[in-house]
Every structure is written in structure tokens, then in C-alpha cells.
Fold each of these.
Amino acid sequence: MSAASPFRERVARALADETLHVALGRATGQLQSRRDVAFASLDDADAVRDFARAGKLAATRALDRMLEEFERRLIANGVVVHWARDAEEACATIVDIARARGCRRAVKGKSMATEEIELNAALQAAGITVVESDLGEFVVQLDRDRPSHIILPILHRTREQVGRIFERELAVDYTPDPAELCRIARARLRDEFLAADIGITGANFGVVETGSLCIVSNEGNVRMSSSLPRVHVALLGIDKLLPTLDHLDAALKVLARSATGQKSTVYVSLVHGPRRAPAEVAPEELHVLLLDHGRTKVLAGEAAEMFACIRCGACLNACPVFQQVGGHAYASIYPGPMGSVLTPVMRGLADHAELPQASSLCGACRDACPVKIDLPRMLLALRRESVATLPQPLALRIALRAWSFVMARPWLHRVARRLARAVARRAAPDGWLRRAPGLLSNWTATRDLKAPSARSFDEWWRNRGAPR
């Protein structure tokens, strides 16, 4: 990877953005501390985490049977079921549903799957107006931006910036007050909920036992999006299944605590089907679209454990790399450690080989994960695959071959070591190298390098004498 790669350029821009650091610092630290407090309130947290993990992995191991059973249950509940192999097919299906029913205005609940397939662009190209109803997504849409976090779409924005966006796009007086900003957004969105004829949401989980969708939110916008329009379309990946309601109970307990530090989200909705008498507020039609879009590639490889992911964002908040560069540096819908695994597997390692390198392998992501996914193991596996299958920089290949040649010859290694030590110590009279040559220049570009000691360890050991 060259120093001029797009990934390095994005990282450099992020590191130079002081406002971004303020926003990230405010959010990630608070989220982590709230998570710790919330888990402390849970009786036998490890047992709950293990049960939630077991449910996800049970659905993964029997995915073909689970999907078929889920479809049967959905149909029995009056749901129309669709399948999509990729983004193009998913977008076409949703556009066709809207057109066939004369829908012209869509209101959307927060959904990373719709971001993944770029649904908004497809709807707008078909002449369908679409409005994001999640507050963060609403700001992102107004600013013609994209989310930087899977739970908090505007984690990269300060409240002062949001105030300027509202002033510019909504022609209101500037205010950085969060309560006032929420009031402005609520007033704008109320009419959109009432005018929309199709609501589009994701789903956090699909419960096979009952053929139900579970959708959680803190703002209530998902309930409005899924109940007021006459047509409701729910898009969920085939990795979102849970076998039973008991597994759902465990997953919900760890999801809210991991995502926002709450014991439970404000709204937990279980959607069983379209309107039934005597209900008056419910959609006339419910369509569920089950999306692959690269997920079977995940299931078929070493990253299959990622099917246990409940999309809580805890690994992002704990990651020291994400804390410094934010989500946009990853150029992926899914940033952070989970995205550094999912994106290369789902979209191809050749185009995203830098993402598995965007980790210190400190293990903080594994510790924070509520379902104990071993993210460092999968990141290392992708690094190995990258080295084995993709061309490596010429300088790196030459350096490694030279290193191998020298290390295989002890006498040459001793000579080279003494020479390198002499040169390095001469260049660092105070004991620190501030500018190193070749591949080491990437290190000294951002930090100093300690110069070698006057004697190597084995020289010291030989002079000391072997122990008895």
C-alpha cells in the first residue's frame, strides 16, 4: 500500500480535522462509560451474552432451514415475502412495490441495509420522494452527507454544526441547543409521516418462531414509518434471524446496553403482519424483503462468526483507530472493526485490503462485543489472505527477502546489526530518531523512534555469562 493510497489520504484528512476529534471524543467516551454502567445492572451478564450469541449462531448453522421456516411463518401472518440477491435486485423490487401501488412519497426509518444498497438514490431516480425520519439520518440527508456510525449517524458532527445545517437548509434561526434542534426536526417531520403513502424500515431481528420482525428505536420514528403509511416495506439481511422469542429477549438486553448504555431502547416494536380488525392504525400491506448482497460470502468463509453480529456499534466505540479517524475514513457503510471484516469479505478484499490493517489488534473490540465475536482473529485471517493473494509493495517484498536472507546467516546478521546500530545512533545523538529511511519513514512521520542501545541483548548475555 503506497503512502498516496486513498485510505491513507482519508485518514490524514480525519487526523487533521480538530472538530471531528471534538465530536468523537464527546461521543465515544460517554458511550463506553454508559455501557459499563448498564452491563453492571444486568444479572449474570455473561450468561445473557452467551445465550444471545448461541441464538445467533444456531440460526447461522441452520440458515437454510431457518429462512424457509421464517418465510412460511411470515406468509401465514399475511406478509408478502421477497428475496434479493444483490442491491440492484433489492432496489428494483422496492421501486416496483411503490409504483404498483401508486406511492409517491416515502418515509424511512433508520436502516443500514437501505444505506448499503443505496435505496434513496433508486427511489429518487424513479420519481419517488423519500425523507429520512431518524434524527441523525435526517441531518445526514439535509447535509447531503452519509452516516459515519451504524448507531449514531452524525457522530462526526457537533451540535454546533447541526445548528448551522438547520439554519442553512431549513431557514431557521441558528441554535446549538439539542432540545430546540429536536423540536425543529419534529415539526418538519410530522407532516412527512402524515403525507407518506409508503414506509420503509429495516429490522433489528427476525424471529423464526413467530414470523415476527423486531424493530427498536429511541425516537418513535420507526413506529410512525411502519404504521401510518398504507404500505410498509421492511428490508433485512439474511443474517438477522433469531430462532425464538427467548433468544430475542437476551439479544435485546445486550443490544441496548452495548449501543447506547440503556437497559432498553425506548421503543421495541414486534411487527406480526398487516392491518387486522379491529386495528385502525396499521399498514394495509406488509412486504418483507430478505437481502443477501454478499452475506453468503461471509457465511462460506472464516468470517462466518460475523453472522452473530447484532449491529450495536460497541466495537466502534472501543476501537482506538475509530476513535481517532471516525467512520468516513473507512469509506464503507460499516466502519470500525466489524466493518473492517465485513466490507472486504462482502465487497472483495482486492478493493478493501487496507481495512484489516486499520486495527491495533488490541482486542478491545472483542471485549466490548456483547456476543463475544473474535474480531481480531478474523482481521488476522484477512491480513494473511491479503499477503497470500494480493500483490504487495515492491519495497516491502525486497525488504522481507533481504531480512530473510540476513536472518538465515547468523554471522551476517551480527554484522548488519552492528552497522545499523552504529548508523542509527550516529543519526540520533539524543537517543531518538525523528526521520528514518525507507519503510520506517511511515513510523517517524507521526512519532519518534527510539535509537538502539549500545549493546544488543545477545551481546550483553554473552558478556554476562550463561546462567548455571
Amino acid sequence: MPFFTDEAHAVHTADDVREAFRRASTAQLAWAALPVERRAAMVASFSRLLHAHRNEALDLIQAETGKNRASAMEEFADTVLHAQHVARTAPALLRERRHPGAFPVLTHTIERRVPKGVVGIITPWNYPLTVPVSDSLPALVAGNAVVLKPDSQTPRIAEFALALLREAGVPQDVMQIVHGPGAELGEVIVECSDFVMFTGSTRVGRILAEQCARRLIGFSAELGGKNPLLVLADADVPRAAAGAVQAAFSNSGQLCVSMERFYIHTDVWDEFVPEFVDRVKAMSLGAGTQWEADMGRLINERQLATVEAHVEDALAKGAILLAGGNARPDLGPCMFEPTVLADVDPAMTLYAEETFGPVVSLYRVDSDEEAVRAANASEYGLNASVWSRSRGPAIARQLHTGTVNVNEGYAAAWGSYGAPMGGMGASGMGRRHGDEGILKYTEAQTIASQRLVPMSGPPELSHRQWATLLDTAIHVLRILR
């Protein structure tokens, strides 16, 4: 069983971070020299260990975030399954590959994947197990060392995961955690990293991207979203209403791929809206580890204040409240009811700005084309949801988002680990999951070996003779290729 000390809550200085990177850089050489199968076996062992410690993981997630038990379980299951996916797919993905050479037989060309070195990873508080682990494991299995900075509000679950990784065999200096405010440690992490992976706000992502660009190091980020949900005229309305509740209010709406904007076709508006609102009103809020609560609390008072401000601003400017709208201190700190608004317009803050809480706005549309235009009218492009019996895939292809879920909110695309996940526009750059989720932590190196005849031609031939022979070879290669 992992053991925790006060060290898990220590605040590190910039010099501490530099020392962690120094140790990581030294340890990374031996780690990269291990066969990828051995590194993958440790990841698989971690997946088994985590699964065996389910209740401890759930308790820690809830204790640090206040999310309900069901949302904690979703996070736990995702982490276990993604770890197993990485362990299973990495060896084949990272093996050396042979490519056609410049000249058949004469040129032998291979591609190999070289780890970046030491990867700096900065993660948020809303998914304190899934995000640190799902970003760290691909970097580790690719042969990198990792220095992770979890959010200051969720240190213990990250330390819990680190303890299991070390139990699985990952050497101490290969995976390290540093704690402290991002505003103080972010710049030094960029200064020391060979690659940076960040999950958080678009504002901070832009700052880090600029810092990485100055150093010419790689950068990948999942950033903000104002995700649209489209209910088309041919939607299965009861199914859509039930799915929309999960899509909007899982983890109290503190999920970058959750839905905040609903575009509902006028033909189903009168059926969908009452059913959805009734389902929202029936949701239960609660604190603690019981399974019955449909939604837990917000992370802190600052997030509660943001949610309250967005709702109050909308109502003051004419929005209509259909459900919720109130803080619930009687149920516990930072509790806010799942909230549904209509008649939201561009003058209101929540129209275009990410709320990152349990608040959705409903908009009536007269056609699929209008729904698509409205959904795409945002600087963000992270995730979208389309509900339709027959037109979902066709409409999905018209949306400018990194992932689109048809007849689901977010889990179908997120849980398809073999496919890439990430944002367009202001929602990020690079991808996690899929091949890119592992390969981005490597550099591609090509090694071409020439034999018998040099590329410049044999010395006994003149330039003209070699040009004639080369021209004939070009003709043959054009046909063969």
C-alpha cells in the first residue's frame, strides 16, 4: 500500500526543479537503453496495481476534488484502461521500421524513434489521476524521463500514482514530481525540459508555447473549450436528453470536453427542452463517498464565484432560467446547482467564454446548416456532440473540433485510445492518445546505409556516363514506385 509523508505536500523552489531535471537527465540514459518491451511491462504492471487499489484511488480523487463517486470511477477506469493500451501498443509502434531506400538493394534505410530526453508535464486539478498518468506513461514508455508538476490543489493523488509507478519498477529519478504554483515553476520547467506537455487554460498555454518556441523545443497542449451539442430533427429525444445531462454535468461541468452550448432543432425543441430540464431538476447533489449523488461540488470558492458571476450576468441581461441557478451551501461548500439557461446572447459573458462549471445555454435552430454555423462560431475547437438517428456522421465532418461524438457526449471519442484526441484553434495543439500520443515524445531518426555503388556514382564512370545510367534508373524507379 502506498505510504504518504508530508513530503508529498512540500513546495519546491526553482532550484529544486532544476535539480530534479538534472537527476532525471542522468537517469534517462539508462532508462532509454532498456528494451521498450521492458518499459511497457512496467506500464502494464502499473495498470494492474492501480486496478487493485481502486477504493484508495477513488477516495483520494474525491477528497482532493470533491467530485461525486461516479465521476471519480469514470476517471479511475479511464486511467487503468489507457495504461493497458499504452503497454500493449507501444512496442510495435516504437520498433525500428525499414523504408524503401534511394536505390533498391544498394540503399538500406531504417527509421528509429529516439526519446526527446526529459519531458516536463504540467497538469490541472479537474482530473488529477487521468491527466498526469495518461500524459506521463506514453513519455516514459518512449524512453523519456518525466518531471511532473500537478496542480497545487491535487498533490496527493499524483503522489499516489507515482508510488504505484515505482512499485511497478520505474526508477526513482526517471519519474519525479515537483509541487508549487505554476506561475512560479512553469518558466523553469520550460527552461529545463526537452519537451513540454501542458493541460490547462488557453491563456497560460499561449505563454508556455511562446517560451517553448524561444527554446525551439516541442510543445503539446490541451486547452480550453466551449463545446457544442447539436440535437438534430431526427434525434431520439429521450436518449438525447439523458445523454445531454451526462455530457454537460459530469464532474460538475469541470471537464474540458463537456458541453456548454446546446443547438436544438426547432422540430424537437418542444419535446427535448422539457425532458432535459426535468432530468436536470431531478439530479441530486451531494458530498462524500456515497454512490447516490449525481453531482459533487466545484473545486474551490474561486471557481464557484466564476460560475455565479456568469449566471448572474446572463440573468441580469435577459437570459431565462430554466433550472438551477443557485449555490447550495446547505449541502456543502462550493456546491452549485446544475443550471440551464435560454435566451443567451452575445452580450452575456457565458455566451462565448468558457464557464467550466455546471451551466449550459440552449439555442433554437431551424436547420442543420444553422446548427453547424453556430457551433463553429467559436475560437475554440475541442469537442462536439451530435444527436441524430441518421445524419450524425455527416454533420460531424462539418464541425471544426478535434473530436466529435455521435449519440454520446465525450466518452466515446476520449475512450477510443487508438485514435487521437486534442483541440483545434484556441483549444490546443498536438494530440494525446493514438499513435501521435506516444510518437510526439520522440524524434524520428533516419539511418541510410549505402553499399557497392556510392550515390555520386562509381569513380570509373565519367559524369556524363553516370548521368546516362542515372537517367535510366530514374525511368525504372518511376514505373516501380
Amino acid sequence: MPPGGGLDEAVRAAAAGARRALRRTTGQLDVLARSGVVDAGAAGLCVVLDALAAVVTDEYPERYEVPARTEAQPARDEAPQTAPAAGTGPGYEVMYLLDAPDGAVPALRGTLDGLGDSLVVVGGDGLWNVHVHVDDAGAAIEAGLEAGRPYRIRVTYLHGAPGDGQHAPCVGRAVVAVTAADGLAALFEGHGARVVRREPGAVPPLAVLAEAILAAGDEVAVLPNEPEVLALAEAAAERARDTGARIAVVPTKASVQGLAALAVHDPLRRFGEDVIEMTRAAGATRFGHLEVAAGEAVTSVGLCRPGDVLGMIEGDVAVIGDRIADVALHVLDRMLSGGGELVTLIPGVHAPPDLAALLERRLRDARPDVEVGVYDGGQERLPLLIGVE
């Protein structure tokens, strides 16, 4: 019981604490995390405590909703009570958790109700579980963004399942690449990949990536091109595999690795062999980049201050300097110290105009055996991307 409080305060605190604990259950069990839901038993306990608080305090809300989906409502991995015939009804099941004020939910319900059917929006106290069947999965996600912050987004294609003879909406071999910059997007598209755009420093919505994979073909290699996108790409691939498609995520952690993988992509090979070759090419590509420090921080090579140029090699700070050109030369020397036959340089928007030419001259003089490729990446945040194969 809170210090100095009576029974009213105790039951209010218990009910509020239970709801806070309920939010955390999704991340405490793998099965709940995969389904994007909270624990059903914990949700039931919340109902009991809320009812107790209402009786003790004589405070009854005008509207009360179950704080999470209960077992009476179909979970993601459970078969629905009445499944629609294949090829009929909305094409996608969209589910997500939503942080949003209670007042935003009626408008969300109205929007989603106009988009599809099988609508369920349950929750309260700022946490909601959303489920709907729609043809436009992106619009369902956008509705959640207008209401609050959707997360643990899941999109499932409804008109097919493994073993039932159905396939993804599009057939054929394809590569899907994720990137944030215009120049990089043009590079990937020029090599035949389908591009999913993301905001700089962010990941693309799961629904968008899953839809892109489904639309690409029934044999798709996915290039995440950022460590932060890798887990999301695996989740999107898993959704697409529910349709019977063959999806492989090539674990590219940088755009230069993605370009190396795409360079050896051969749609005439068997899919498994093609993925192996792409993965091998990506793994054989060392990657680095330059960035400008936004604040003071302690790194593995010392203290950096705002405005310092950081030379990064495979995610670790290798050098701190004042000038982009000097740091770039140091990073190149370090990356080539272990050997290399091909160097890829991708200047960004804020790179000095003569940076690529300077680096090419240095490589011609010091390493005439190394081939150099220079491409305009158009990235905003990183002045230079470097790949060494």
C-alpha cells in the first residue's frame, strides 16, 4: 500500500501497475514477441484489478475495453474460425501494437473499418492491439501512424499458405535492396534490384518491406545493407515465406556489400546457389565510411568532439581527424593493408568535390594493381562510403 494511502489508493496503484507490467509481457516471451501480443492471462488479471478498483473507489469509466487481445480472439499463428476461400476477400492481414491516446482510437477505428474487415482494436490506457484485413496494407499502417506510434507490425498475405498450391502475387527471381539515398537507389536499380527506401537513420516499415518482397517474386534475395535493417528484413522474409515463396536474406551490413552481392547475382543459377554466391561476395567485402561527429563521445581511439571527422571500419572508429581527405586516406590505407583487388568509393552529398579524384590518384601511385570504381551515392549523413574486395 502506498505510504499514507488508503484502500482506494492501493487498488488504483495495483491496477495501474498491472497495466504497466502488461506492456512488458510482449518482450518477455518469444511466442508473444513473434505474435506481437501481450500475455492473455496477464490481460485477464488487469480486467480483475480494474474491476476491483472500480468497485472500491466507486469510479466507473464510461467505456471500458479489455487491455489486450484475449484467447477468444484469434492469434497470428492460430487458424481463424472461418477462413475465407483462397483468392477472395481482402489480401492482407495487418497487425500491430499501438501507443496512442484513447481519444485517437475512434477515428482510427473509422479509418480501418473503411479499409477492410475483421477489424479488432482492443486495449486502453494508451496501449492498443490492432488487427484488420485489408487490400492496402500500407494505408492500414499509415492510419496507425496518424493515431500514434505503431510497432511490432506484422503483415501476412491471406490468399495462400505453404502446401496449398498458392504462390506469392508475383513469380520469378528478384533481388530487393534497402537504401536511404537517391544515388544508391539508382545504383541498385541499375543493377536490376527492386529498391525499398528508408529514411536516413531509420528502418523502413515492416509492412512496406514485406509487401515489396511479395510483389517482387517467389524467389527473392533481400539485401538489408544496414545492421539495423537486418532483423527487420528477417521478419519481413518470414511473413513472405507464409505464401510459399522462397526468400533469403543476404546479411549485408553496408551498401558496398549489397552492391558486391548484386554484382554476382545470376538469375539463371539455382536459387540456393545464387544466394550462396551473393553471400560469399558480400562477406569478402570489407566496408568503411566517414562521418562527422555530432557530439562529444568516447571512442576506441580516444575522445571525439562535435565536428570531428570519424573514420569507421566495419562499425568501429579507426581514426579521428580534422579533415575529410586526411581521414579518408588513413581509412583506405588501413583497409588495404590486408590486401584487396577492387576499391569502391561512394561520395555523399557533403563530400569535398575533389575527394574522389584525390583518392584515385593516391591509389594509382601507391597501389596500381587495385581497380577503383567511383559512384555518386547521394547520401546525406556520410561523406564517403568505402568498400574493399
Amino acid sequence: MKNTDSYLPPAVTEQSRATILNDTQNLGSAAERRNLRFVILASSIGTLFEWYDFYLYAGLSVFFSNLFFPKGDGFAQLLSAFAALGAGFVVRPFGALVFGRLGDIIGRKYTFMMTMIVMGFATALVGILPTYEQIGISATIMLVLLRMAQGLALGGEYGGAATYVAEHVPNNVRGFYTSFIQTTATLGFLFSLVVITGTQLWLGDEDFKAWGWRIPFLVSYFLLAVSLYIRLQLRESPVFELLKSRGHTSKTPIKDSFGNWYNLRYVLLALFGATAGQGVIWYTSQFYALFYLQTILKMDFLTANVLVAISLAVTTPFFVLFGKLSDKIGRKPIMLAGCILAASSYIPLYKLMSAAVHPNLDFLALPLGVVPLPVSVNYVVVELCLLAQLLFVAMVYGPIAAFLVELFPTKIRYTSMSFPYHIGNGIFGGLLPLISTAIVSSTQDMFAGLFYPIGVIVITALMMAFFVHETKDRSLHDV
């Protein structure tokens, strides 16, 4: 994006434009003199806790299908649980619009503090929610409403945190520093699995199923208090502060983001040329892999959680590695390579993982519902398959925050980057467990669920290859 004049208010003269750009270009060295580690830590911890809150439900979806939904066919219950999981994802783009607008008008800091409060209380309330057996369908409705509140909050959190960090750091290390925000989604998922697994081991299966499942949700009260205390120590983004002091913030960021073709085309490129493919890679390699082990291959809940948790822990540093590498060679080649590897490898990896759990079992000749419990599992092969998938995630997700913030100008950055990110992740990615499980159920082919993510990834790879330009050398200080 070389033409930035379309983003400038009519009252900005060439002289004042030059002053703003010169002033903000000096913020890189000023930010380096400040305690960047605290900025990264404070932003990352808060975002990590929000991902923890959001993904607790995902880690317990298989378990929740019996707690909050009418009794009946096991697969139908599971689909209902996935539908409730999907409700939280569907509303994320609306959260991006609501909180993105606020973030571009009043500032990054206070907006993502609001999202944290909404998320923390919605999560903690799940911990005291009556079950279907106690109050009937009202329990289901309240659970879905709380999931939607979580989705609205998360829709505003990620864009705020990524924008806030990016606007603090020097241009030539933006991929490296924003990649720490990128680790928070995986670490939040890992943290949720550790808390769930630890609680289950501590209490035992019987007490965990009776009441212990509530503990991971109630922990959110403590996490909310810690997060708020830390974030209250932060100051507003220096780039946004300068823009606001000169009266050049947008009064209508939603209209400015989507109301003209010049800006809208970058939103569409961000969605179809990056976040849609990234979203399905994220959810295939982490959530769907976990559900696949638990529901299709019939691996026990605890073992599957441990295997996925190990893969998450091992691959988390690669998010930072690929973020740093993107500062040198660019965001596009790394993300494109991740898309190509994922699309070409998923079916072989899932076949290999299935064979490792059920050696010598002819899945094509066996009805899906009668897959037996595993007897002899090659855990090393299963773990290697999970690790390979998580490396694909690191390749596309590590550099994408830097890519998105570089794609849009300061005055509409929060809104413009949040919306395509949460459609790609919330809709294309978040509905993946529901869509893929429904495809498997209707076709009785355990590998058919992979056709959906592969199709989306191929579209993104083609768009990225031919229409998306490299962004790493763009300054965030264009108004």
C-alpha cells in the first residue's frame, strides 16, 4: 500500500502531514528506550487469560454434551455441543466491530480492558451455571448466551492487543514482538488443558464429572483480577496518542473501513488471502485434532488432552521463531509455505495418526459408530503427527499479526484488522469442528471432514500467491 493519502482528513496539509510522519517515525527509538518487555508481558498475559477463558469450553465440549444438552443419540449431543461452541465464534466479528470502533475512537488500552472484564465474568458464570438435569432447556440457553458474550469480548481483545504492541515497537522487529501475542492463543489453549487435566487428576473422574468441572471456570475470577491490575499499569499506544492529540482519529471507523472500495479491498484481501486459511489451519491442527482423537478414534479424554498439550508446549517457541524470520524474509513467503504444507499433508497425517491409534483396522470397511476402543497405540507416531500440524499453525499464525497491522492505517487499524481476523478465525475456523464433524457423520467417512479445511486453505493460498503483496517494510506511522 503506497497510497496513504486516501486515509488523510481533508484538513491535513502537506506540511502538517510531514510533521506527523516525522514525529511518529521517531517513536520507534523512543519505544525501544521504554520497557518493551513490560508492554509485551502485560499485553500478552491479558490476552492469554482471555484465550484460556474462551477455550475452556472447547476442552470440555465432549464432556459438556452430557451436561447441558437433552439426552439422546451421542453423536447428536456432540453436534449440539459443537453448535454451542460455534455460537461463541460466530459473534466474534460483531465484537470486532463494536470494540474495534471504540478502540479507534477512544483508544487501544481502555477498550481491551473492557473486553477483559466481559470475558472474565462470562467465563466465571459458567462455573456456577445449573445443568440441563437441574433446570432443563434454560441451562442450554444460558450457556449459549454466555458463549456469545465470550465471543463478543474476544472479538475486541485480539485486535487491540496486537495493535497496541505493534504501535510500540520499532518497524524492523515488528514480526518478532507481535509474535509473542500470537503465542497467547496456543498457550491459552494449553493452559486450559493443563487446568482441566490437573483438576481431573486431583479430584478423580467421579468428582470431576459431578462438580469438579466447574473449578477451571471459577479460576477466571482470579485471572481477571491479575489481568486488570497489570493492564492498569499500561499507557495508551504512543502512535494513537499522537494521532488523537492532533485531532486526526476517525469519528466513523466502521464507515471509513468498509465504506469505500479502496479500504474495503484490503479488508477482503486480509480475509480471503490470509485469515480464512490461517483460521482453518489453527482449528484443524489443534481443536479438530483433539476432537478427532477423542470422538472418532475413541482415545480416552485424559490421554488425548495430554498428547495435544505436549505438542502445544513443544511448538510454542516456533511462533516467535517464524515471527522473527518474517522480519528478515517477509510475512508472505512463510504464511504461504504453511498453507501449502497444510493442504498437502492433512489427509496423509490423519491417516497415519489413525493407523497409529488402531493398527491394522480397516476404517473404510467399518461403520464409523462402531470403531473400537484403542488397544495398542503408537504414541510416538501420534505425537509426531500432532507436532507437524502445530508447525503449520506456527508458520501461518506467527507472522500474521504483523501482516494485519501493516495492512491498515492508524486511524482505522483496530477495526479494519479485527473484522477480517475474526471472520477468518471465528467463522471459517471456529465452525470447523461442527462442519467437519457433520460431514463425517453424513458420509460415514472419517477423513471426509478434512475436505472443508483443505478447500479453504487452497483458496487462501491462491489469493495470497497472486493478490497479496509483502507488507514487512511498511511503516505504521502513515496516518
